[in-house]
Design a protein that fits this description.
Blueprint: H1 35-46, E1 53-57, H2 64-78, H3 94-100, E2 107-110, E3 114-115, E4 120-121, H4 127-138, E5 147-152, H5 159-170, E6 176-182, H6 190-194, E7 197-200, H7 206-216, H8 222-232, H9 236-244, H10 247-259, H11 266-278, H12 285-304, H13 314-323, H14 326-346, H15 350-365
Helix pairs in contact: 2-3, 4-5, 7-8, 7-9, 8-9, 10-12, 11-15, 12-13, 12-14, 14-15
Length: about 375
Amino acid sequence: MAARPRTVDLEPLPESDRVGELAHPRERLDLFGHAEAARTLATAARSGRLHHAWIIAGPKGVGKATLAWRFARAMLAHGADKCPDDLSVPADHPVVRQVTALAHPDLVLVRRPWDTERKRFRVELPVEEVRKLHGFFSRHSSYGGARVAIIDSADDMNRSAQNALLKILEEPPAGAVLLLISHAPGGLLPTTRSRCRMLTLRRLDDETMQQAIAALAPNIGEKDRSLASALADGAPGRAIELAETDAVAMYREIAGLLSGLPRLNGARLFALADKIARAPAERGIVQFVVLLSQIEERLLRGTYAALPGVPGEANLLDHLRATVPVDRWSQLWDDLRTNATRADDLNLDKKQLVLNAFFAIEAAAR
């Protein structure tokens, strides 16, 4: 008697549109803020004249993907003519389970694929992924309703992929709805933008931000929640990412070092640089460049206009302006971003990038 084949539990492939270990937007049923945007989609669906393609734009982490998945669930569960204003679907509805598992036959997701050989995501969203939409839209709807495609994010498409998408946008199939998520729609081809309806999401106010973070990440302490909320500037997904990836702690380290100017604490600086160099890029050097450049940006912008404050940062910014001339900070800001891009392109030493950034600031302070 032949031996029974062994079953192997395969780990799910990483998802390029998921942030770390956080819940994927398709798994989230709550939408914080953006009630007017949800109503716009619902009204368009019920009108019987729903545009076939939408660009859902706004800052990263503001809730674009959450809104897109919420709209997709509502369309598939209720039908276009019965979409509620808030796009809600009961948690026990079969469509919720199908969408969460990416198992609904009338829904497709297009995103950067995982390269199993190199163990990393493709840098761009390639044309072959977009071409899958032709096969998807060539089939009839399984349930007689809309067929929905989500591209997350459209910014990742290379030129060939955008040209392939244009063929669908120019001759949209009946019942097709494309939702393009974009952090920077200005980077898309003008012909792509002209064939889509734009829906821009605005940053959330502080009260809504606090509610979102408390609900989505209840393990985050109140002190970290307030700081993450301010650093994220109205984008709850970004706030949770900051708190969950230790970026809040990194911000405090950066701020602590800067507060010691005109001289840096060498031991603290080298410890921070070592920690950043050992961390994965998204949690290390990328996060460092974003946090430091944002401090410099707030310093510059706050010189000329009042800005919403980051808790405890006002005294730091005053100290930095007194230590280094504002025009010099502008050059330091430009240099940081230029050097970060060069380091990424040439795969240069991450630790040295951190050290050089602080050495340049210290030299300017002297």
